[in-house]
Specification:
Helix content: 25-40%
Shape: elongated
Number of helices: 3
CATH superfamily of one domain: Outer membrane lipoprotein wza domain like
InterPro entries: Poly_export, Poly_export_N, SLBB_dom
Number of strands: 10
Strand order of the largest sheet: 7-6-10-8-9
CATH class of one domain: Alpha Beta
Organism: Rhizorhabdus wittichii
Order of helices and strands: HEEEEHEEEHEEE
Largest sheet: 5 strands, mixed
CATH architecture of one domain: Roll
Family: Belongs to the BexD/CtrA/VexA family.
Radius of gyration: 29 Å
Structural class: alpha+beta
Membrane topology: Multi-pass membrane protein
Strand content: 25-35%
GO molecular function: polysaccharide transmembrane transporter activity
């Protein structure tokens, strides 16, 4: 009888210990999951916003190439480039200001001009085919103008331009956005800093 009681007590103790272990793992697991799901900082200068894609409110500028269509008017459909003076030359209505406007605003501008004596209730659509290029200067092996691709990073831009020179500061660059007047320092060491169309990147010299 004593042996049976001892066995039962030991079995109950083992089950209790196993239950505590399971509960302990169950409590720890959400914490692990929460830590894994915590957002990873992008790590860029606050003044230069990052993103994985271009926002819907993208602002047009010199060099952007668009396809503009007018429903039911195939002769007006075509590809148009924002000129160095910031305009798009469109049939019937002539020059339309484009630089500094969103695609949606440009659509409405063309629509309203066509509706003013040319077409009845025109429907206009526009989309960007090719974004304006970016520029990379300074301590780089092949400085110059390069085609912009959505999602391109500073590191990829440097690779396109033949890499850093031996004098380059590889931890920080300066970026000037197309519609801004001043450049801003951006830390790039171990960070994927995304570019925007029309950006100018300047690679400075490191201190030996």
């Amino acid at each position: 009888m004593t042996a049976f009681v001892t066995f039962s007590f030991r079995r109950a103790a083992s089950l209790a210990l196993a239950l505590l272990l399971v509960l302990g793992l169950g409590l720890a697991h959400p914490a692990i999951a929460q830590e894994a799901q915590a957002p990873t900082p992008q790590g860029s200068a606050a003044s230069v916003p990052l993103g994985t894609t271009l926002a819907p409110g993208y602002v047009l500028g010199t060099g952007d190439k668009l396809r503009i269509s007018v429903f039911g008017e195939p002769k007006l459909d075509g590809e148009y480039v924002v000129s160095s003076t910031g305009i798009v030359s469109f049939p019937l209505i002539g020059n339309v200001p484009a630089s500094g406007q969103t695609v949606e605003a440009l659509q409405e501008s063309i629509r309203s001009k066509l509706a003013a004596g040319y077409l009845k209730d025109p429907r206009v659509s526009a989309e960007v085919l090719n974004y304006r290029p970016f520029y990379i200067l300074g301590e780089i092996n092949k400085p110059g103008e390069y085609p912009f691709v959505n999602g391109i990073t500073v590191q990829q831009a440097v690779a396109m331009a033949g890499g850093f020179s031996y004098r380059a500061n590889t931890k920080r660059v300066f970026i000037k956005r197309a519609l801004e007047t001043a450049e801003r320092p951006v830390q790039i060491k171990g960070k994927a800093v995304l570019l925007m169309p029309g950006d100018t990147i300047r690679v400075g010299e490191r201190f030996f």
